[in-house]
Amino acid sequence: MLFRSFRSILDECLWAIQNGETVETCLGRHPRQANRLLPYLELASRVSQTPNVDPRPIAQATAWTAVRERAGELRAGKRRRRAVRITSYGAWMRPMAAAAGAVAALVAVSSGTALAAQDAMPDSPLYRVKLAGENVHLWLVFDEEHEAEILLDQSDERTDEIRAMTKDGKEIPGIVLDAMRDRNERAAVIIAERPEATQLRDRLRGQALDQEDLLVAVQADVKPSASSDYREAFASVHNSYFVGTGAFASSLLSEELADGVQTVSGVVQRTENGTWTVGGMAVGVDGRTISGQELMAGSTAELIVGVSSNGRRQALSVSRISAMPTPSDLIVSGEIEEVTADHIVIGGQTIPITDATFLKGQPRKGKKVSVRLSNTEAGVVAGTVSAGNGSSSEFGASSLTFEGVMETDLGQETEQLVVSGQTFAITADTSFDFTAGDAADGVRVQVEASAVEDGVLEAESLTVLASEGDDNSTYLVGTFEGGRPGVWVVSGVELDSPQGNAQEPDEESLVAIDAEESDDLLSVSSFFVIQAPGENLVKVQGTATTIDDTVWNFGFGAVTVDSTAEVSGRPIAGARAIVWGSKDETGSIDAVYVRVLDERAVISPPAEEDTDS
Amino acid sequence: MSVAVWTTVLAESVKDRKGAQETTGPAEREDTAVLAEWEIVRRAQGYEESALQSLYEVYYPKVYNYAFLQLGDVQAAEDLSSDVMLKMVESIKSYKFKGLPFSAWVFRIARNRLIDLHRRRKRRGEVDLSESIAGTLASPQVMAERALERGQIQVALKHLTDEQRQVIVLKFLEGFDNRSIGSIMGRSEGAIKSLQHRALGALRRVLYEEEF
């Protein structure tokens, strides 16, 4: 997903056009906003070409004479004579004059503070002054439509502030979320009363979509104390989309998001009683669900859902829908080799960064980073860049990839996920991918998790695998943390050490382990050291759309998997895979280790090209 | 599909973006122009006539254009431009180069003078200044002097708020960047971004209604 406020995109385009860029080039960079941008850019271009109003030569010449004379006086050291008006105040007026002076002084001081607060960020003590200043500005606006426009601007500025804080790796405080809610609601109330204000309503709706995307993306970055503000802001932004339609009356309640907002993808079906399921998980879909097209039973969709405290899931929006399953997003993780304002290099791969790239943390050379790629009309770009903080499963010593058999019924209210006897906590951020099948009890699944305090493993994602597998076998990838006689610890999970004289991996090694489950214990059957301590391999996750001998194509690019690579699982075009590799001399990625997740294709391989035509 | 495809595709995408945002040249040229002007301003601070004349010849027409689009009245625009030029000469010693172009300083004077004029006229109970644009345009003599396009934009500007009109003129007719406009209008860059968005929206609505 790409996020950026429209105001900011418009400003960038206006600046670029002022510097010689064409309207078309700018629209090409922002295809999603192109229709909205075009009239603004055309108008700006038209205004810029308006000829100047020239002064009358006689007036200009006359004024020059006066200026020249004055300059002469100043050269000669003459001061300007000022007209002095002496006002005689009566004694009774003096207190008023003193009071007026005090007020003027107060205004002057306040103005200075207000000026300093103009660019204050939400974590600044001056931010409250900035918000108060915005309200004062509105007191002087008497036209309500104009007021709604200003409120939308102010709400849009909150978008930029949240983005900037996320980029700096800061937590989002409640004050900015509350201010976003406040501005949106006030604008919505004005617009709702004016059915004729269609442009304002369209702006409100477009802005609401952008802000909802942003709020989904920053959920994990909100301060724990601001969770209530987050829910309120989310519900308000969501409801803004329906202003002017019948659905506005039956709006989303913040309580319906009490347990957070999740991403769920999979095949959608309609049950006999008219309710919907996604990958077997019940989801409420109604007039409050934002969707570009109607849901069709049997199609594959990605939904953003709100989870209430009793576990009920309400579809907020449908972010993707297709007749057939599509390849999963391509994610590249590793150490940054080079980073500039417009690209980032990982494992020799140059990935463009655009202004629309969502940055979580500041990417710096040598830092671990995870990049989710997006295919836009401008080409393949970084959609989201998450700079490592050690807590994500893309990197970090505590991350764990775990495959096993599902032992939880997600249809029931649950905060836990049990897979082959291993318990994971479901959080507000856990995403669910049911593209390969329903999340039924007994299916094989993969969980990506990170170990948090007290040995708890938090599930970041749950993916149903296209695999039958052996009920007793499990597979995991994690960091070897040492052990004691007979026991290995891998990313917080304890396993019986392998039989025989197998040499223990070095601590901090990244290891892949095949294990057997018996009597609630996991025993290591075999293992492979993917990465020694200090090594920096690149990790590529996605769907192998085609496999041509040693070249595995992952949609946007390819990696080499030759005979020197260790491959776990059977190579299948259309199956999902994770590759760990390093840059070769040509700048491409050579696989060291590959894990194929599925035993059958999840997507249909592309049709053979007809070379004769 | 060769192994090198990935690198090639991504690198080309970067190259395309670089091509689209070729900004180093204009930015450098702009810096050079600001520094060259600073040299003239330094000489003008010693009241050197040729330097003052250079500044006058550049800024009188610019200020006049700005004033006319705000006031819509030839005489008032001439008076204001003359007043701003006098103030420029009298205060030029106090100007310090802080990275903002000299033009932003001159336009700040112009804007303050405009606000003073608004206040004076209001106190005297005179007609709202923005109304007078329409009045001026109604005169066939004045209309004949202007291109149709310019007339349309001017009429449309009349319907904007003072701040919206300011930002349109400063940004799109005078070519200032957001930082300079913020300095002239005493607002943050973020506020200018919002204002230009709103101003273009308002102008579009007015033009759309009038043209279709």
Q: Can you offer a commentary on this structure?
A:
- The complex is a heterodimer of chains A (613) and B (212).
- Chain A is α+β, with helices and mostly antiparallel strands and 613 residues long.
- Among the domains of chain A are: 6-43, no CATH class; 127-246; 262-322, OB fold (Dihydrolipoamide Acetyltransferase, E2P) (Beta Barrel), CATH 2.40.50; 399-531, Beta Barrel (OB fold (Dihydrolipoamide Acetyltransferase, E2P)).
- Helix content of chain A is 27%, strand content 30%.
- In chain A, strand 4 (300-307) and strand 5 form a beta hairpin.
- In chain A, helix 1 (6-18) runs parallel beside helix 3, helix 7 packs antiparallel against helix 8 (174-192) and helix 8 (174-192) packs parallel to helix 10.
- The longest helix of chain A is centred in the first third of the chain and has 24 residues, at 94-117.
- Chain B has one domain (32-211): PhyR, sigma-like (SL) domain (Butyryl-CoA Dehydrogenase, subunit A, domain 3, Up-down Bundle).
- Chain B has helices spanning 5-20, 24-44, 49-71, 74-91, 102-123, 132-138, 140-144, 148-158, 162-173, 178-185, 189-211.
- Mean pLDDT of chain B is 73; it is low at 1-26 and 127-147.
- Chains A and B meet through helix 1, helix 2, helix 3, helix 4 and helix 7 of A and helix 1, helix 3, helix 4, helix 8 and helix 9 of B.
Fold blueprint:
The complex is a heterodimer of chains A (613) and B (212).
Chain A: H1 6-18, H2 23-29, H3 34-48, H4 57-75, H5 94-117, H6 127-139, H7 144-167, H8 174-192, H9 198-217, H10 227-240, E1 261-270, E2 276-278, E3 281-283, E4 300-307, E5 313-322, E6 331-339, E7 343-346, E8 349-352, E9 358-360, E10 368-376, E11 379-387, E12 399-405, E13 416-419, E14 422-434, E15 444-451, E16 457-464, E17 473-484, E18 487-490, E19 493-496, E20 510-518, E21 521-531, E22 538-543, E23 546-548, E24 551-553, E25 558-560, E26 566-568, E27 576-583, E28 589-596
Parallel strand pairs in A: 1-14, 9-11, 14-16, 25-28, 26-28
Antiparallel strand pairs in A: 1-2, 1-4, 2-3, 4-5, 6-7, 6-10, 6-22, 7-8, 10-11, 12-15, 12-17, 13-14, 15-16, 17-18, 17-20, 18-19, 20-21, 22-27, 23-24, 24-25, 27-28
Helix pairs in contact in A: 1-3, 7-8, 7-9, 8-10, 9-10
Chain B: H1 5-20, H2 24-44, H3 49-71, H4 74-91, H5 102-123, H6 132-138, H7 140-144, H8 148-158, H9 162-173, H10 178-185, H11 189-211
Helix pairs in contact in B: 2-3, 3-4, 3-5, 4-5, 5-10, 6-8, 8-11, 9-11, 10-11
